[in-house]
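Subject: sequence -> structure tokens, single chain

Hey, anyone have a minute? Need the predicted structure for the following. Not urgent.
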Amino acid sequence: MRNLSLKAATAAFLLTAAGAGAAAPSQEDVDRIQRECLRAYTPEQLAGLTSGHVTEIPAEVDADPEEQTYFLDDLLQLEKGRFLPFQLEDLLSAFELYVKPGVRFLDLGSGDGRVVFLAALLGADASGIEYDKEIFRTSRRALQALEGLVEADRVHLKRGDFFNSSWSGYDVVFYFDQSSFEQGRLRKKIAAELDPGARLVVGHQRSEFPGLQLETTFESLHVYRQPEVREHDPTFKGRCFREVAELHGFFQDWFNAAVEPTEESFARVADVIASGFTLIGPDATMRRRAALLERLRRGYGRWREPGSEEPGTGSIRIDRLRLYLIEGPLAVVVYDERHDVRGEVRVRRTTALFRLVHGKPNGVEWYHVHGTWVP
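Reply:
Had a minute. Here:
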């Protein structure tokens, strides 16, 4: 399973030339990770997963990593998806190329932690996010059992829905395809948030990842790369200007109740606000992404006439739209918003920081906005 394709061999040569990684882990070390992860499941946990049919790990399963994978694969159907334990030997060829000391690594749906522990063993700063409470606790017990082999300060296990976390800031992201029930949403978020030059390692791929470049394949793995952003993308200015016009057009429709208040329509704003977004309003109040989106949801229809169910007639006009700065994947744009609502006109001067990304309506997302009222 560790035979490299021609593309993988080429990648191996280039990466080796770029710098050596940590020594390859021994088979004994790999087996220990898998064994301790399996043993971290409690009898009560096994009974709950099997309706009481299994309360202890059979000896033949404990002794054979391949049997361990089949054993757990039959059990673990979870609320947000499936945890599909990967046999670590199948990851080694790719991980020895891409997961090196100092690399920032993220496992989406990390389950009992085995892939995170392997990445840490290779010297990475390794993170994993797992939604299921009991499986997450299993990973914590496994980490304790691996003391002396895996350095705990390299491991960051987090419990939660990985859709609520930012996936930027990592060099390598691992995902076992189809382990989430929201495949379309997952692919959009990966294309939007994976850093330029970062790799996505996909186990048992079912469909392609739009917007990413397929770099190489192994027997059960595909490795994608987020394209580098050109230093001066000639389309960047136009993307920002279109986004300003289109999003404020959406705000006008939303506040007038001229669109339906559905998740599908609201996605036009939710999908383009970055995970780390901040807004500083004219009153100097700072709002993060979640607070802003909640405020916008509550504002649906607020420009309608009091007591009326008919759409409002308020308007937003964008004036003096200009580019202030482009630096790599970032751009600063300044513009005036002219709000005309039931005869009252106010003008707000806005400075917006955009990031050039893939998978967004105009290929950009909003990172920061600062507004002030114009006298």
